[in-house]
Amino acid sequence: MVRLGFIIGFIALLGALLSGLAAYRVHDQELALDRIALARAIDVHASLVQDRLTERELLARVASGLFRAPSVIKPNMLEPLRSAIYAFKTDFVVAGWIARLKPNELTAAQTAIAGAGFPNPTIRTYDDKPINPAEITQPIDVLLDLEPRSDETKALPGRSYDQDPVRGAMLTRARIEKRSVASDPIPLLRGNGPVGIIVAAPVIPEGATEPAGFVTFSYELASLMLTNDDMSLFSVALRDPRKEGVELIANDQGVVSTRRAAVDGPAPSATRTVSFGGRDWQLGYYAKANSARRAEQTAIIVAAIGFAITAMVCGLFGYVAYNNLRLSREIQVRIGFERRLTAVIDELNHRVKNILAVIQSIVTRTLRHGADIDGARELLIGRIHAMSNVVSLLSESQWQGVKLKGLFEARAIPHADRIAVTGPDIAVSARAAQSLSLLFFELASHSDEGLSLVGKHPHITASWTVTGEGTDEIFHFRWEELNTSEATRRPDSDFGLILLDRVAPEALGGTAKRYFTDASYVYELTAPMETVVDMTERDRTDKISAPVRPAR
User: Superkingdom of this entry's organism (predicted)?
Assistant: First the structure.
């Protein structure tokens, strides 16, 4: 059973180790796959954003290249470009023409704006404050035309963006660098309008060194690079170049809002840099799902499945192994029982043969030639009865011996109630019990002629003592018949004399003597205690009679 438990424990330990290893590998693989998928999706998104920005910057460059400005204050300046800019199908909010006007051109510009159908032709600042042309000494940048024209956009022409901190800085840089330039993120159309970016491309007439004006395109920031949806693996944030530690992020409705990047907050999973309008823009990507936690959950599921399978395997193995072990033990018990049965039969045959040999000797000696038939019959029946009685006593004790006093309490001993018995209550072996039972029968059966009672005192005494220690212990037995003489006591038979003088002493490995005193008949027997008890016989019989148990 211990070995079976060890095997099951080993299988459980092996299953737990394999389950843990599988969970560890799955955790690493899931984490690696999630990171690879996230990195790949980020790279694809950043590449698409860069392509879209390049297309829009290319539109501004193409538009500025196609633009012809024989007169910068000519009304409907974008009319020739309408078909070209709409052919790109870009999602710009407003396309505009910003002319760089000299002070003496402001009046003509107002006339051109009014003639183009715009409601407010007055030259004014970006926040709608009128400008006095007499106070202007340097060229200023004024919006003269735009597309598309709507009720909201028609009010914009006539505004000057020189003092606008965002648009003015963009136009100044485009004029100096003479290439398309993007602005900082800024609300479009109105102060609370959607946040976007404006790109301005300078228009330089042939042979001139300074731009005559600028073609501008404005784009909403959400649709340009910050669009987030529910199916995306990440959310995108744009680092606001105007403010340190501030990010711009758009929700799924395209509304852009600002948030402060916490110092102790989660860092972006990755950052990418894109170029637009001569500037580098940094995009921060935040993973929506915690890949580490997801990998841990998957690993826990794999480990739980592994532990469940291990428990099932251990249970099935234990069930099958236990049944096999029980069957094996039953077979071992059966084999042991059959071996023990064979040994018991052999022992029984041996004892039966001994008993039959003794009975045969009894019959032969008792019914010798010339014996009195009636007396011989009585002796034969008594001797056989004595043998039967001791066999019954041995059977009751499983042949483990018989208490010596028990032989005198048997009915097979004549006049047993008149015999005074004294001595330690020792258990004699089966062989000694057979010899002593016949011995007691012979002594008691030949004392009936001299039986007489004095008061209530018996006239026969049987006593024994044990002297010495260890292997030197000696058994002393004394039989004395009081008030008996040679004349009153029945003479011993030939069988009785042989039993008293030779058979019993030899069976016990001792010596015997008998004699008459002045008032009694005495029989004494001395034998080693080890033959009287015979522990080897008792151990052998105990092994045979012990219950059969399977070996562990």
Answer: Bacteria
Edge-to-edge strand ranges of the sheet holding 270-276? 256-260, 246-250, 234-239, 279-287, 270-276
Question: Secondary structure of the chain: what % helix, strand, coil (to 5)?
Answer: 50, 20, 30
Q: Do 42 and 270 meet the contact criterion of CB atoms below 8 Å apart?
A: yes
d(CA 252, CA 79): 35
Beta pairing class for 270-276 and 279-287: antiparallel
d(CA 335, CA 330): 9
Q: Which residues contact 257 (CB under 8 A, 6 or more apart)?
A: 248, 249, 250, 251
pLDDT, tens digit, for every residue of 295-307? 888 889 988 898 8
Nearest to 384 by CA among 411, 363, 353, 399: 363
Query: In 235-273, which positions are buried (b, 16+ CB within 10 angstroms) versus exposed (e)?
Result: bbbbbbeeeeeebbbbeeeeebeeeebeeeeeebbbebe
How many of the other CB atoms lie within 10 Å of CB of 378?
A: 13
**Quick check: 473 and 531 in contact, CB under 8 A?**
no
**Tokens 């003597």 identify what position?**
513
Q: 526: which strand partners?
A: 476, 511
More confident: 174 or 537: 174
Residues 6+ away with beta carbon under 8 Å from 538: 400, 401, 429
Distance of alpha carbon 308 from the chain centroid: 7
How far is CA 403 from each of CA 387, 533, 534, rounded to the nearest angstrom?
A: 16, 10, 14
SS (H, E, C) 253-322: CCCEEEEECCCCCCCCCEEEEEEECCEEEEEEEEECCCHHHHHHHHHHHHHHHHHHHHHHHHHHHHHHHH
User: How many other CB atoms are there within 10 angstroms of residue 473's CB atom?
Assistant: 14
Peptide bond preceding 148: is omega within 30 degrees of 0, i.e. cis?
yes
Residue 428 CA to residue 400 CA, distance in Å, equals 9
39-48, 245-254, 258-267, 426-435: least confident range: 258-267
pLDDT per residue as tens digits for the range 436-482: 888 888 888 877 544 444 444 458 899 999 999 888 899 999 999 88
CA 21 to chain CA mean position, Å: 12
Sign of the torsion formed by the C-alpha atoms of 80, 82, 83 and 87: positive
Per DSSP, 80 falls in state G
Q: Measuring CA to CA, which residue among 289, 310, 138 is closest to residue 210?
A: 138
Q: Do strands 270-276 and 256-260 pair parallel, antiparallel, or not at all (unpaired)?
A: unpaired
| DSSP output for 141-161 | EEEEEEES--TTTTT-TTEE-
Which of 57-71, 173-187, 489-503 shows the highest mean pLDDT? 173-187
Q: What is the DSSP string of 408-458?
A: HSSTTSTTGGGEEEES--PEEPHHHHHHHHHHHHHHHHT-GGG---BTTB-
In order of 26, 92, 117, 511, the CA distances from 431 in angstroms are: 79, 125, 146, 16
Q: Residue 527 in 3-state DSSP?
A: strand
Q: Left, alpha or beta for 419 (phi > 0: left; psi -120 to 50: alpha)?
A: beta
